Amino acid sequence: MIRAALPEDAAEIAAIWNPIIRNTLVTFTTEEKLEADLASLIAEKSASGQSFLVFEEARKVIGFATYGPFRGGPGYKHTAEHSVILAPSARGRGVGKALMNELERHAKRAEIHQMIAGISSANSQGIQFHKAIGYEQVATLPEVGRKFDQWLDLVLMQKRL
């Protein structure tokens, strides 16, 4: 079941996100997410009209998706960047696609015209997933990220909503 995230979901979201931060090149960040910060982020997104969704199965959060501004300034107000992250048990089962469908519906209602995905080039599954749901690769920014003593490329993918 897809629903709006609640601040009380922060612990389960952190349990999904932090191993990815700690152990993979999927995200360039090295700072783990704190439950209190996630609870605040969920509340802020809700208050500002941006979506933060979770996929819940058997009363457990197994994935989430959210979007926010792509860049600052009023000229970019119709473009957003999203994140979609799944627990290992949720991958390959349509959970990500369902989350993205709902997230994109919300974004359209919020007058978002373009959705951007910034994906680590080390995340080939993420790139393939986005291609499968209609995103087009529009750029590769070479060596703009650094993690685990490696330079990483950022792949930008875009979908017109």
Automatic annotation (TrEMBL):
PROSITE patterns: GNAT. Keywords: Acyltransferase, Transferase. GO terms for molecular function: acyltransferase activity, transferring groups other than amino-acyl groups. InterPro entries: Acyl_CoA_acyltransferase (IPR016181), GNAT_dom (IPR000182). Residues 1-161 form the N-acetyltransferase domain. The keyword Cytoplasm does not apply. SUPFAM superfamilies: Acyl-CoA N-acyltransferases (Nat). The keyword Transferase applies. CDD domains: NAT_SF (cd04301). It comes from the Bacteria. This is Phosphinothricin acetyltransferase. It comes from Cognatiyoonia sediminum.
